[in-house]
Amino acid sequence: MKKVLVAEDEQAIREFVVINLKRAGYDCYEAENGEEALAVYSREGGDIDVAVLDIMMPGRYDGFAVCKELRQKNGSIGIILLTARTQEMDKISGLMMGADDYVTKPFSPSELVARVDAVYRRVALEQMRDENNFKEEIRSGNFVLNLRNRTLMKDGAPIELTQVEFQIMEYFFSSPTTALDRTDILKHVWGDTYVGEEKIVDVNIRRLRMKIEDEPSNPRHIVTVWGLGYKWEA
Prior knowledge:
12 strands; Arc Repressor Mutant, subunit A; alpha/beta; Rossmann fold
């Protein structure tokens, strides 16, 4: 069963989200605040595929804090943030904390389900690889990308990646020195039906540079191709 955790303090919105996800075939777990969301996650033993989190939840844990906690506990869980805000900083902050995507309120049922479907497909792909003991590795210079356990090694040292970051790196490693435009990266990682914005690519590239570059402000490996996108140089 496809399992989704929905954390939203406004009951009407939470019920709206849950009803539509159930209609789309998801098994839903509800939480009205961040503390309850983390408790539900623990109670289920981490057996949650996607978490849909409202940013503006009351209490100690808002959506950002829950996102950060879940990402630390599970690198493969899909995380989508719900926000009524339009400020770019809120969206970027969520992505930098490890969210896979964000949906701005108000949203249509079809948009939300499409976003959850896209994230779930990535989660399911990784689970399938694990179950099949997929062990293939891709090497590029002093980097090694393990496709089974979703790890990246640089000079023998592990670099933790989120689900989205891993897929971007897999795309880069499969297309070395090739200039990939933002639209190509977006479709490859988020799917052809993704209805979000291309800046989600730039934010994840920024995160990756912070993790793999010796000097993130002067990248040697993830190089900007001005007017187009990015390319990988080992």
